[in-house]
Amino acid sequence: MKIRIPVSSLVPATLAVLISSCFVTGAQAARSVYNFNSDWRLAVADPTDASQAAFDDSSWKKITLPRAWNEDDAFAKDIVDHSTGIAWYRKHFTLPAASRGQKVFIEFEGARQAAEVYVNGKRVGLHENGITAFGFDITDVVVPGENVIAVRTDNRWDYREQATGQKYQWADRNFNANYGGLPKNVRLHLVDKLYQTLPLFSTLGTTGVYVYARDFDIRGRSATISAESEVRNEYSETRAFTYEVQIRDRDGKEVARFTSPAQSVAPGATGVVKASAKVKNLNFWSWGYGYLYDVVTTLKVDGKPVDSVTTRTGFRKTEFANGMVKLNDRVIQMKGYAQRTSNEWPSIGLSVPPWMSDYSNGLALASNANLVRWMHVTPWKQDIESFDRLGMMQAMPAGDSEADVTGRRWEQRISVMRDAVIYNRNNPSIIFYESGNRGVSEEHMREMKALRDQYDPYGGRASGSREMLSAKLQQVAEYGGEMLYINKSARIPMWAMEYSRDEGARKFWDNLTPPFHKDGDGPLHKGQDASPYNRNQDSHAIENVKRWYDYWRERPGTGTRVSSGGVNIIFSDSNTHHRGAENYRRSGEVDAMRIPKDGYFAHQVMWDGWVDVEKPRAHIIGHWNYAPGTVKPVTVVSSAEKVELYLNGKLLGQGRQSERFLFTFDDVAWQPGELKAIGYDAKGKRVCETTLATAGAPAALRLKAITSPVGLHADGADMALVEVEVVDAQGRRNPVALDMVHFDLQGPAEWRGGIAQGPDNYVLARSLPVEGGINRVMVRSATQPGKIVVRATADGLKSAELTLESKPVQVEGGLSAQLPDAGLPLHLDRGPTPSTPSFKVSRVAVPVAGAEASSNTENAGKSFDDDETTFWASKSDDRHPAITYRLAQPATLTEVVLKLSGWRERSYPIKVSVDGEQVFSGMTPKSLGYVTLPLKPRKGSTVRIELDGVADERNAIKLTEVANQAIADTGANQTPKGVLSIVEAEFYKAP
């Protein structure tokens, strides 16, 4: 839908020029945007008169935002025990002298849960949803000289909306860690009275700037770029202006400039202006290629700029059809993580500097993930912009816990989605808008989609929800997919919202390694066995491979109905609900300090390609430091066709392949030295290799700093990660070391520590152990620059010392011109989207013309209708359950793919015949959805599938929800064992 300026707000441009000409001399050159994070004071209390300017806050704690007041709780406490209540934040600031006559806006990237804002003792507004950005016009309450802003925050779990008394669905103790107060960035905007609005709809009622691309020519590297700005005139007379758009590349070079015709806005009116042009030689944003442009939109009066807004964005083409997602005309299968939106760290929560967002999210990218599905609530702007720079796709939810809702709670969700779309629609990394974590009604899906159509009609984003499996819902939603099992479609893309929930601590390698945690050992969870949530690293990694296998097997290129992939819950260990022995969730592929587990490298191997694997890799699970006499299986994860294992140069044999990527070598006798795995392609050519070496006895500690690429800033919010390793005499990490390390910190910095298994998880402790020979701690910069020294000691080991230097940051009157993400680089390592196909067709679907069954023939068509909510089932008294399919044309079939009711719980004895000749007989495997039955090749026109006995429910795959409810009903409980029930049947021939 095109947005145009309301006719009532315009006057003829010639008249407007005459009216406004005498006011041009007062126009400001451009807006100023300030970092407003410095010089705050915090009190966890609710003192009387704290909103008043004269209130004495000199005894309050000095902090720099972003800062959750209860940050110490992160990972030290279970989510349900996070501290809640009232906290006040106050700040004294001085406006620049040049701001006289300008508009002044305050922008908060978010607060938890509610924030009531006062300036100089006057209440300017309230924000309550705990998720989205908000802001206020404070022009009429600021004064020359010193000003005081005060914010009363309330993060109680049971907080209720003041106007309605309604709680917020997403304020849920299971899902959304409660980091209270002002845990996100704040900015101050100074603008002319003729200005482009801010995209803060709920509190300001404005939509800001919208930049988008259309008419793509990917090969020709061109597109039509459009910019639309909502413009407001707060002068007392009509203002005439021109609208100019400048596009600058990542080096600041101008690549295009274009304008719209002169126009005007009446006093007190708001309108939308637009300019478009075809732009050539574009670099399209892509996976691992976070190419961004600065689009500068400027309002000019009599040729002089009065307001400029710089929008950092990227341009990419998307398509959602035929069960697949295309990015820049190339099919891409979703591979990634369902990450908690808090994306938190120990003792800090979510409030990390932007470079740490890039570091953490960049690790996900380095594991070859291409998508993160944020869970339950919209992520903060900092993470969204991080994904832009990295070239990582993301799915953006609004706000929910689970299940559809009605009444005011649904209105709250609509409001959050509207605000989130408007605020984030210029971020190219957002590919999906998620309407609900657990299905929404057709009516509600239409409402959410209408928001997208109204506020982001050209952004190239699919509007959908978890589930959306029925043919009816697929006509409304643009993507869908369940959790923990696989869905396929020939229509909208279906990808799994969470396909593995198992947990395993990084500390535990395997059963044979100190501290000798037997795989699965741990307490019951809600009275049930919790073995899958107390895994060792090796079984956790192997399970990740097994779970992904179903999605890889049904990838694009394998037929008409395909899976568009899925995301594994989660990427980094999270301080949210858990099932294992600890008080936090350990299902991450990296731990809370972002140190990789073996599952990280397993994904890196399997996911290295847009669809098919494009770069063969291998990874040996585990380490090679064992006690003499140890005999154990060795597992290699590899995308090669076959793998050989060598120990100290001696060939041990070829691995037994399973789930495509697993190669197992049984009963390997440990010897010190080098273990090497070599992978070969189908022709026997060596394509990859990897090694593990035995490390010597622990001899020393080693420290390494991980800091921002632009240096450590003395702003009171920047962080340095300090990595500590236990190494042998040759400098090799000892992978089984568990030494306790004691730290000393000197200089202008604050100790924030790290995490390890133990009391309070060692959060904020000055002494904590390494796990697997490595750990990390954090220090936070002070507001004074200088030398920071970190020393580490451990009994019997050589100590280590590390020196850091923090840089000064200029702050005047509480304002800084240096924004938090200034200078962070774009990630371009993967290069532009390849022009070659992303997959090779491995089989071709043969359409079905019709079907007849031994009973319930009237429902036979439901077994091939591309609708996973319908099925055909034989009657319970049918002694010979069978169904016969008529193919649309004769074909030599090689495979039958079935989704059978009760697929997780049951194996069915099946016979398959083509034109009367038996081509398969056997038990179907249990799976996460679909089973593939290899057929003896036979050309024919009819296929008969019959049940030859009763279903077997031994060794069922049991998956439970946090409340011990079945995640999904597979139909087993409603289907007797002697009934044949087919959800979907597909027939394939060789390409």
TrEMBL record:
Assigned keywords, A-Z: Glycosidase, Hydrolase, Signal
Domain of life: Bacteria
Single GO MF descriptor: hydrolase activity, hydrolyzing O-glycosyl compounds
Chain ranges of the Glycoside hydrolase family 2 immunoglobulin-like beta-sandwich domain: 219-316
Classification via SUPFAM superfamilies: (Trans)glycosidases (SSF51445), beta-Galactosidase/glucuronidase domain (SSF49303), Galactose-binding domain-like (SSF49785)
Protein name (Swiss-Prot/TrEMBL): DUF4982 domain-containing protein
Xref: Pfam families: DUF4982, F5_F8_type_C, Glyco_hydro2_C5, Glyco_hydro_2, Glyco_hydro_2_N
Family: Belongs to the glycosyl hydrolase 2 family.
One of the GO biological process terms: carbohydrate metabolic process
Keyword Signal: yes
Organism placement in taxonomy: Bacteria, Pseudomonadati, Pseudomonadota, Betaproteobacteria, Burkholderiales
Residue span, Glycosyl hydrolases family 2 sugar binding domain: 75-158
Residues covered by the F5/8 type C domain: 852-956
Keyword GTP-binding attached: no
